[in-house]
Design a protein that fits this description.
- The structure holds 2 protein chains of 2 kinds.
- Chain A is of the alpha/beta class.
- Chain A has one domain (about 30-145).
- Helix content of chain A is about 20%, strand content about 20%.
- Chain A starts with about 30 loop residues before the first strand and ends with a strand.
- Chain B is mainly alpha-helical.
- Chain B has 2 domains: about 1-80, no CATH class; about 90-230, no CATH class.
- Chain B is built from 10 helices and 4 strands, in the order αβαβαβααβααααα.
- Chain B has a 3-stranded parallel β-sheet, sandwiched between helices.
- In chain B, strand 1, helix 2 (about 20-30) and strand 2 (about 30-35) form a beta-alpha-beta unit.
- Chain B is globular and about 65 Å long.
- Classes of the chains: A alpha/beta, B mainly alpha.
Chain lengths: ~150, ~240
């Protein structure tokens, strides 16, 4: 949202303090293998749904875009954009295009979905596990997409 | 999202985060963030606008090339697509909903409205790979039946899904009810701006009015989860701006 459009109820809250950000030196563009990390509570139909405050994650397979289900529990955002075109939340095709024209090296096979309303500290263990899996898969860039 | 960026970068991945609430990203200072001007729920912009979506992706990934100590924070400067702005005034419910001048029961009113939308929902399901309907695992008829009975006798209700608590079932069934309407509405051709859809659902449909009543009836429920869900999550307090 534009800063001036953000409702007053969303600003002024106490935010978690993560300190100064760490910095990993990114690989050159042509060597970047990119994975999306979404907090939209995305699942494939049939996966376990997220519960309130879930700290776990689901795996979204690059090659299995059928029947994606958004299960984020907040009512404060519009889901109609996602159901018309899931690229507005999970831009896999846009990343494929970037890989095709050489803007990035590759699109990772696996992408990851968390439940956005969960406090980030509660997700630390699972997020670190996801990072380990990504690195083992050759992924070196995470594109984080809120909802 | 900013917190996850700290954690993932700390574990060895280069990260770049889109930010829908710029003030949060400024405050939490992820390694690289691109603030986008879109409404909650549409972080890449407009459905069907591949060029805009690609612009967002490219602008985000370009932050990886910034050779400077973090945090790197940029704002994407794009205009809201003209098509969506133009559609705001003219957008209307895609099917003629029944007149509201013959009061019957909530269940029959809702069932009638759902029935009018069902063909468009069916079309959406046939043609789309993505959905936001199905979290509760209940079909729409069962959702209407159960939610209206819950509203009639709040303290007598039990969860209709064995694996879900009463609170979770209520919340997910309500989300599915809303998802059914929005997916049916957006199955019509043309642009569907978030604000117009939001206004239609909450201000013009029986389902929107029902969910407002459900909030009132369940806000003092004896089940703590039901009470909290009803107070906090049944009806939005943030409305799309465009």
């Amino acid at each position: 949202m534009r800063e001036e459009d953000v409702p007053k109820g969303l600003v002024g809250r106490e935010l978690p303090d993560f300190g100064d950000p760490p910095r990993v030196e990114p690989a050159p563009a042509s060597e970047r293998r990119v994975s999306i990390v979404s907090t939209a509570g995305l699942i494939h139909r049939g996966d376990r749904p997220f519960g309130l405050g879930s700290a776990d994650y689901r795996v979204i397979d690059r090659d299995d875009e059928r029947d994606l289900l958004m299960t984020h529990l907040s009512t404060n955002f519009d889901r109609s954009g996602f159901v018309q075109d899931h690229e507005v939340v999970l831009p896999l095709q846009r990343l494929r295009e970037a890989a095709d024209d050489g803007s990035i090296g590759d699109v990772a096979r696996f992408h990851y979905s968390f439940m956005g309303a969960t406090p980030p500290d509660k997700m630390r263990a699972t997020a670190e596990q996801v990072a380990t899996t990504m690195l083992a898969d050759g992924t070196n860039v995470a594109l984080l997409v809120p909802v | 999202m900013s917190g996850l960026a700290h954690i993932l970068e700390g574990a060895g991945l280069a990260t770049v985060a889109l930010a829908l609430i710029p003030q949060h990203a400024r405050g939490m200072r992820p390694p690289r963030a691109l603030a986008v001007p879109f409404d909650l729920g549409r972080p890449l912009g407009t459905p069907g606008d591949a060029a805009l979506q690609r612009e967002v992706v490219d602008a985000a990934l370009a932050l990886l090339d910034r050779d400077e100590p973090g945090p790197v924070f940029e704002t994407l400067d794009v205009d809201v697509p003209a098509e969506a702005e133009a559609a705001l005034d003219g957008w209307a419910c895609p099917v003629p909903l029944p007149a509201d001048d013959v009061p019957r029961t909530e269940a029959s009113d809702l069932a009638e409205e759902v029935g009018l939308l069902q063909p468009w929902f069916d079309r959406a399901r046939r043609e789309r790979a993505a959905t936001s309907f199905g979290s509760s695992t209940l079909e729409i008829g069962a959702i209407v039946d159960w939610l209206t009975r819950f509203a009639d006798e709040p303290e007598a209700a039990t969860s209709p899904v064995e694996s879900l608590s009463l609170g979770d079932a209520m919340k997910l069934a309500a989300e599915d009810l809303k998802a059914f309407y929005l997916e049916a509405a957006t199955a019509q051709p043309g642009a569907h701006p978030a604000a117009a859809l939001d206004r239609w659902f909450w201000d013009e449909t029986r389902a929107g009015a029902f969910l407002r009543r459900l909030k009132e009836r369940l806000s003092d429920h004896e089940d703590g989860a039901v009470r909290i869900y009803a107070r906090v999550t049944l009806v939005p307090d943030i409305r799309p701006t465009r």
